[in-house]
DNA sequence: ACGCGGGCTATTGTCTACAGCAGTCAGTAG
DNA sequence: CTACTGACTGCTGTAGACAATAGCCCGCGT
């Protein structure tokens, strides 16, 4: 396989040794996800197939299958006979994504609590530990990844695979949102944030539903949502109302 | 639905004239969905690509893309290097599907209420009318389709596209469940069922959340769930507990 | 008789090539 | 100078062929 120029993304992955080499589709899908949530491709950008085949060193059929997957995940949108674009986001989309996320987490924890000793809990603890390590190292991207894993493993406590999968898709879309504002966010205190997560986990282990819900409510997003309505179109009534309400509860 | 030999399914569709001809991928995906929820393919059955290309009269690339879509919808499961099978269902899967459905509907109506006059309400009314017509005609399959459309349009009242899409996927999986027991169900009184739906809609229009929730709770599924644990593996604790609880509330 | 290895077949994974539509830009007429 | 029409370019949609792997059956050896 000698695509010297372009084999970067996929080629690198296959070089890293997989016991069961994943299909080119999976690798292309993963590479695309990283490009999108990493900000290399911005919402609204065209995704040209031939261009990516050269970049990945693969042919079009597997790439097209990967695009179909990404579409069902909500990261791209395919316009018949016109091509593929990275999903453009409106304020209403942000409203949808964050309301659903909230409901998913709430539902998952309602189903999970009370939670006995379980390997699922180990996964959450591992995520917290990784967050702590990343915070100590000051590695913010790494911290973000483990933070997502924390919340995902929290949802997984429910033992509800479909819910977990839905939440995973939603996380991708959240990362798409966040790719739009690659600014600030350094003012966040990672150590403090780790503390919030750790406290949340303790409440989960204690089985205190009300406290968990309360902690979740004040758990975040406000720094991200700072002035977001200036940067996005699609100001639905419900979206604006939601935004105001979120900011209101933040103050309280 | 008999796929006589050649280009039956897809060919027929393309012959019927589409203003904007959908891609073969879309048509193949739709044909596959019908085959699966129609019971032509049962959970666990292998889905052989070449076989279907001959049946549909298309080539493998679009079919493979369609399979990727169906996998993200949860109707099939792709095992790397081994092929594709129709998603096998356990009792735990049924538990997941029905709990999520309940939560989706509840969330959607919570977001939608109170609902002012809107074209979205027209859609619900149209669904009820279609149900009534099908009930009068005694056309049970048609009735079932419009019943699904009723619930989907109810969810759509929320104006939450992602929620609507998630609910649509879930409906497909519910139909997959129902494809497993193609028995009885005739004892249902369609007229009475129409009445239940109509009453639910009235409560929605009245904006009475508590009453809506109460009506939803006693809205169904028990005939379907009759003795389902005998026919399925995967008896998780939570699934059994859920089943018992559902049957408990039914009695009440 | 039973376990094991080698070849075979069926099926999936991938690539190259061709057909057809969409948007664009130049050229021309008014 | 503007509006319309035509070909052109690039892209997507689809087909068919090639490569590689997994399961299976048969024959062989113990």
User: From the helix content, strand content and strand pairing of chain A, which structural class follows?
Assistant: mainly alpha
Number of strands of chain A: 3
Largest sheet of chain A: 3 strands, antiparallel
Strand content of chain A: under 5%
Cα shape of chain A: globular
Q: Please tell me how large the radius of gyration of chain A is.
A: 19 Å
Oligomer: homodimer
Please tell me the overall pLDDT of chain A.
Answer: 86
Q: Helix count of chain A, per DSSP? A: 12
Give the helices and strands of chain A as they follow along the chain: HHEHHEEHHHHHHHH
Q: Note the gap between the termini of chain A.
A: 59 Å
Could you explain how this protein is built, in words?
The structure is a homodimer of 252-residue chains. Chain A is mainly alpha-helical and 252 residues long. Helices cover 66% and strands 4% of the residues of chain A. Chain A has twelve helices and three strands. A three-stranded antiparallel sheet of chain A has the order 1-3-2. In chain A, helix 2 crosses helix 4, helix 5 crosses helix 12 and helix 9 packs antiparallel against helix 10. The longest helix of chain A is centred in the middle third of the chain and has 22 residues. The N and C termini of chain A lie far apart (59 Å). Chains A and B meet through helix 4, helix 5 and helix 8 of A and helix 4, helix 5 and helix 8 of B. Chain A binds a DNA duplex (30 and 30 nucleotides) through helix 4.
Walk me through the topology.
2 copies of one chain form a homodimer.
Chain A: H1 8-15, H2 24-37, E1 46-47, H3 49-56, H4 60-73, E2 76-79, E3 83-86, H5 91-112, H6 119-137, H7 140-156, H8 161-180, H9 190-206, H10 209-217, H11 222-225, H12 237-251
Antiparallel strand pairs in A: 1-3, 2-3
Helix pairs in contact in A: 1-2, 2-4, 5-7, 5-8, 5-10, 5-12, 6-7, 6-9, 7-8, 9-10
Chain A binds a DNA duplex (30 and 30 nucleotides) through helix 4.
